[in-house]
Structures
1.
Amino acid sequence: MANILIVDDSRTSRKILRGLLEANGYVVVGEAKNGQEGYDMYAQYKPDLVTMDITMPVMSGVDSLKKIKADFPDAKVVMVSAAGQQHNMLEAVQSGAAEFIAKPFDVETIKNVLKTVLEG
């Protein structure tokens, strides 16, 4: 199955997402707490897909997405957003986000989004 990097400043969100991904056969290659760590880990592991929270300290998810896509144009990044982040979601789409997952997480939505993005 695909290798996935989780980037989210919420330990709870990372734990929930890891559990959902691993239960569905995906391999979580790492977890990052902010956009800069996410970029660094992407460069190190080059996963098949990244789940990227939008609002994080140090570097936002949108800025991390832009940096990843600039250096790795084929990167597949799925943004994770809470309600009320439409402006950031628009910027993320314009910056190359493959898809979105909304919090709170829905197992079927996550499975469908990841399958669609990975199959491409």
2.
Amino acid sequence: MNLNRPIVLYYHAGSGNHGCEAIANSTLKLIHRKRIEQGCIMDKTPIPIVISNNVDEDRKYSLGDLEKQGLCILVNERHIDKDFFAHVIYYGWRKVTGDKQSFMRYRFRDGYRAYTLEHNRCDHKKTDEKKDMSTASGNTPLAISIGGDNYCYPEMVSDLILAHDYFRKKGFDTVLWGCSIEPDSLKDAALLKDLMNFDRIYARESISYNALLEAGISVDKLELRKDPAFELETNAVSGIRDGAFELPGKYIGINLSPMVIAKESTSGITMENYKRFIHYILENTDQSVVLIPHVVWAGSDDRKPLSELYDAFKDSGRVLLIEDMPASDLKGYISQCSFFVGARTHSTIAAYSSGVPTLVIGYSVKSRGIATDLFGSYENYCLPVQELSDPDALINGYKWVMSHS
């Protein structure tokens, strides 16, 4: 794929979800490496535009550094729900005309303007009119949808379709990057039509890949490729400390999310499993336990359930809840674990890609598919939270994974 052309990455939810940060970070670095390999003239090649739901979050973590290095330009989406007058005007327009995409034109206006300015900046630098047009920056622009599991959430699909259609109408080639798709969702005719309109789809695991093939997506536009976050760099980190106190010995990493708890079929079963598991580790091993948040959004903050676990075991002196930090730093700590159990997909990808024995508390096709591709089956490596009923399932899963590692 020719990457020496204007590129927009859209539907990035913000780096307060460190999985989103990991995808965007790894993708931008991949684009930069590939451009060098393709012999791009970097000062004449438009810098990728990242249209983000929350630029302040991005600049707090690693994407801010990438922006300073010239690997991206961060642009905030417009939030129509935060602009009373715009909301009234656009809602009235849509009500009268039926123009549903008007909200997307508002949402991506600043991002499209930044793309135009960057494209024109590089276009003005052209000096050799006889240059090889295969590497000209004026080639068809590329829009990459980077929210890996966005299409797994039915409430998001209608907006995803409108957003994709917006960039297609603007003349972009479009790519769905590192995606997972629930097979049953492909029965939705509107969703399937939208997916067929992408120029290329990269599925990150084989369950989604095979489902897309069976649904009629052409093999010529479909590729199976690991999640880009597998390539996230691992930052060197110091020992696990709480002030001057350092946890003794090896440690087991634990991640838990409110999202997984909300999807349990048996009320309280997830927290009960985690508490029994930590108690088992403290009573039967000499290892410590590190609680690792991977999403810190106000509406879905891993630190809330992890704080409950910390409060239950803090008197042991062997349990610590680490602070929020960039994705590559979190991966640094996860890489030092002797075992990891995680609910957030990208916390487990950090563990998988570091060679750490890992057990997933999953809720969707992405966790099942990734485990299947790594181990041949997700059985024993992934515990679907909807099926969780045994309060000792996590202990038993730990024993099985460790005995087969």
